[in-house]
Amino acid sequence: MSEKYRLQKYLSLAGVTSRRNAELLIEEGRVKVNGRTVTEQGTTVTPGRSKVEVDGKAVFWNPERNTILLYKPVGTITTLDDPEGRPTVIDLLPKRLPRVVPVGRLDWDSEGLLLLTNDGELAHALTHPSRKIQKIYHVKLKGEVRDDSKPLLQLKEGVELDDGMIKPDRVAHLRFTGNHTWIEIELHSGKNRVIRRMCDAVGHDVLKLRRVGFAGLELGSLNPGEFRDLSAVEVDQLRNEGGLNYRDRPPVRSKPGVRGGNEKKASANKPLKRSSPRISKPAKEPRVTGPDAGDREAPKKSTRRPAAAAPSAKPTRRGKQAPPAGTDRPTSARGRNADSTEWTSSKPGKAAPGSRRGAGGRSAAPTGRASAPKSTNAGKRPTTQGRNNRGK
Q1: Which of the pair, 250 or 363, is modelled with greater confidence?
Q2: Integer CA distances (angstroms), 343 to 206, 236, 249, 294, 316, in order
Q3: Are 242 and 125 in contact (CB under 8 A)?
Q4: pLDDT at position 290, please?
Q5: Model confidence over 83-135: pLDDT tens digits?
Q6: How far is residue 341's CA from residue 320's CA, in Å, rounded to a whole number?
Q7: Is 107 a catalytic residue?
Q8: Of 82, 107, 200, 236, which one is the catalytic site residue?
Q9: Cα(118)–Cα(93) distance, rounded to whole angstroms?
Q10: What is the mean pLDDT of residues 144-164?
Q11: Hey, where are the domains in the chain?
Q12: C-alpha–C-alpha distance, residues 71 and 220, integer Å
């Protein structure tokens, strides 16, 4: 026979809201059981048989208990919801997980092992002061603190605080890194900020505080933000530490493997995909002119003014061919060299600028020296008036 649950407890275990807010939902008529609106607080439901709806959405809950071991990172609050909007340990868990609550607490600036569970009986047993649950911390102190030093001896003997005498179960020196010292403190007290207050009383500020053990469980190789489900054997161990009978343990919901931080870290280190590959265009080479332009590399662009032209006819600043040494420049209006092979006409019967034409419209062979321009009357027959005036 399946166990029955009160409706508000069922909604709380299903992760819909807290038990107190669930009572308000029932009073407002927003909850239905098997298609009927329920406003009475004493209504009971059976998981797997009763159909429960909140605002028209079905609510499912598995009676299996889930207990999680989380590596709480620095900068998170050990609570379900923070009114100031700071990140909580619940934000580190996937939304699909059942609603769980923290077992005990760790400060904002502390890190390490933290249990979360939806087994209320187990959470109460592990946090009750009478059970004296073992807790192990690694503490980082500034400077060198030797095993036989006075501060460490004071911690081993016990420290008087404002709320009473506190004596750890064990204090051990771990290592000295050159600038800092790591020590290990084991105690069963659950007082607020007890480790920091003890170290401050012996004259050392705590630089880092990490919880590595709780009720016989160890943090292991987890990284900050990672978590794993406890197995049925580990849950039985916790129930034994809390004074509970492991034979009365409800079914355990456990998924093997580490989750959380590993998946986020892998996606953060994964290279971004581009929509299209970035192809760099080759640089444009400067244009080279001249008869031997195809046989040599293009000259590098320079801001210097080129030197005087040499007989090798190197390209000038504008890419034009310089005249050979010892030649005169043409006297034409265009100022082009008559011997340059750059100025050739592409149309038949039309001479290039600055070139000489002979009879029949053909270009004369270059002589290496520019000739004076011919008269405009050359080759024309004299007029009658000119013949008559000859004798005068």
Answers
A1: 250
A2: 88, 101, 103, 19, 16
A3: yes
A4: 52
A5: 899 999 999 998 878 778 999 999 999 999 999 998 888 998 999 888 889 99
A6: 10
A7: yes
A8: 107
A9: 14
A10: 91
A11: 5-59, 67-264
A12: 10
- Cα torsion 320, 324, 328, 333 to 10°: value is -20
pLDDT of amino acid 26: 93
Strand partners, 31: 54
**Residue 6 burial by CB count (10 A; 0-12/13-18/19+): exposed, middle or buried?**
middle
State yes or no: pLDDT of 16 exceeds 90: no
Please, which residues have CB within 8 angstroms of residue 135's CB and are 6 or more apart in sequence? 186, 187, 188, 190, 211, 213, 214
- Asked whether the predicted pLDDT for residue 304 surpasses 90, the reply is no
Asked if 334 and 354 touch (Cβ cutoff 8 Å), the reply is yes
The whole-number average pLDDT for the span 228-252 is 87
Angle between helices 120-127 and 232-241 (to 10 degrees): 50
Tell me which residue has tokens 């501060």: 151
Give 268-298 pLDDT, tens digit per residue.
333 334 333 444 445 555 555 555 544 455 5
The answer to whether the beta carbons of residues 297 and 286 sit under 8 Å apart is no
pTM over 0.90: no
Read off the tokens for 30: 């927003």
67-264 is classed CATH 3.30.2350.10 = yes
Domain 5-59, CATH among 3.40.366.10, 3.30.2130.30, 3.10.290.10, 3.50.50.60: 3.10.290.10
For 201-231, the pLDDT digits (tens) are: 999 999 999 999 999 999 999 999 999 999 9
Q: Is the pLDDT of residue 257 over 90?
A: no
User: CB of 226 within 8 A of CB of 259?
Assistant: yes
